[in-house]
Amino acid sequence: MAEKTVYDSDKELYIGFCDIPTREKIRELTASKIGTLLRISGQVVRTHPVHPELVSGTFTCLDCQTVIKDVEQQFRYTLPTICRNEVCNNRTRFHLEVDKSRFVDFQRVRIQETQAELPRGSIPRSVEVILRAEAVEMAQPGDRVDFIGTLIVVPDVSQLSIPGIRTESSARHKGREGFETEGVRGLKALGVRELSYKTAFLATTVIPSDVKVGALEILTAEPSKKGDHILKDLTGQEWQKIYDMSLDRNLYQNLIKSLFPTIHGNDEVKSGIFNFFGGAPKTTAEGVCCIDEFDKMELRDQVAIHEAMEQQTISITKAGVKATLNARTSILAAANPIGGRYDRTKSLKQNIALTAPIMSRFDLFFILVDECSEVTDYAIARRIVDLHQKSEESIERVYSLEEILRYISFARQFKPKITEDAQSCLVEHYQNLRLRDAGGVTKSSWRITVRQLESLVRLSEAMAKMYCSEEITEDAQSCLVEHYQNLRLRDAGGVTKSSWRITVRQLESLVRLSEAMAKMYCSEEVLPKHVKEAFRLLNKSIIRVEQPDINLMEEEEEDAMEVDEEAGNIQQNNIPNGHDPPSDREKTQRLTLSYEEYKSLCNILITCLQKEESRSEETEYEGMRKSQLVNWYLKEIESEIQTEAELIRRKNLVEKVIERLIHHDQVIIPLSKSGLRSSEEQDENDPILVVHPNYGTLEV
After folding, report:
1. Half-sphere exposure of 125 (CA within 13 A, CB side)
2. pLDDT tens digits for 457-469?
3. DSSP state letter for 411
4. Which stretches make up the MCM C-terminal AAA(+) ATPase domain (predicted)?
């Protein structure tokens, strides 16, 4: 007798179809394709975690204990319709036997149309793909995959969970006489409620496609040559490498990775290859990226620009793929002030809606104020009219565009080198900074740590990579440090304090500008004159716009103008001929201060109040009143006062400054005590003064 082969009946087999000749687009999956074998392709945009799915359940009736096997599940938890026991009529009370039921791995994947299949100006269509058993975990976000299976209809669980969406049978409403109403009402609403199913694609086979391998085949294959000609052209050494790659797949993958980077930017899509677009900073690599309306950029764009300016890279996350693109570019940006007009009484950072981290990444700031000038306006208008009347070629230029481009290309050929003397000078100046930081008298407002040394080292490396000159001399290095110290000392002062802090970033800007000056003059060395010119340029951009004088009698002038209009005729009749009426403009001029003088006086008064506040916290001292502050200031400057008129003028001056700090700048807060009437009157005329708690972050 022949031996009979016994097969294990518990072995689960899943059928998969391959090499379906026809391929359907996701946009063409309609109701007519339901139940047919199809092949679709798309890019995976989202994958759900794998979880077990109940395929065939075994239930036990809770009334008669009858076991019901092989209850097929319809993509949702499905109970038996009725107990199989003829005596039992149970329809709802069943218990699932997990040990006797059959489960399988289940995963949902969402794919969308590729760029090659997407019609121009259309939004990509997407569809959910259901994977089971061995097909799970074969597709990752960002992969372009082919799926072979069938289009099915599955219950929409999200719609079924909405209250009132399940349709239940009910008796028709009867009329007043017991007859049924004519027709069926509410068909539109009933049809909408029954739409609790959606289409999905049940895949039996997953065929991932390697984009790099496809790109390699596209770029290496020549249409003019066929396979036989290519095989004949291969040498013995090339055949040996191909044989080695067939034995070790890692060699093949390494070859592909060496030929094609993980992410690369391109300006068009060819042959169905999905490319990343890096934007303006990426496409202008090693050039200049010009951005207009920089202050009106969205927050996410500002974050990307911040990364490009800080790390010279751009991070992209698309379709689950994380990539980093190089963005080695210079940024030239233009922004408008808040309200459309530059306020001279405020600093630069208060006039522009930009954050401090973004502003700190720029080297230079230039403020263009549109002032009314007859000469300047005529020159601008004449230039614009000439551009419209004449062609661009006929306008006289000092240098042509070709000459400028050739000059820039020539200047970029210079590569800098740091000599040993410059390195020694770098270490010496860093030690001097450390010693100065350790002192108490000349202690700076920032700590000199190893970070500053690392910054200087990075600057030295940047010097060697910039297209400037061949060497950076020791004199230029000393000049750099000297000018940087001058900026720091000016920043530590109170009168000439700039609108932002002078940090190592300004030193980096000074180095870059010095190298640019040497490059512009095609010099082989960065000389001290280049550093001085860079310092002049940086110093010009750091200082604030020239502030107008502070008029302390502005409110009194407005009140006086109203009084003069009412009593103008009376004054003219009482004044004798040949004499001019006394004017208040002389008094107003005497109470007018320059911005630097006003700020210096404000700093003196605020410092005194802060010291008194710290003293009042330790003792029961209530604080300094306005009259006490005025007397303290007059006592401090008594050596400068020679006459009684000078004393009265200085007293009026400091009182007006205090009033401006209270009502206009809102830096000083007057305090009053609730109690007796006499104390309230005293507080109103001579209040206790305290400094605003947020004064440390504000600017006078």
Report:
1. 14
2. 555 544 444 434 4
3. H
4. 278-384
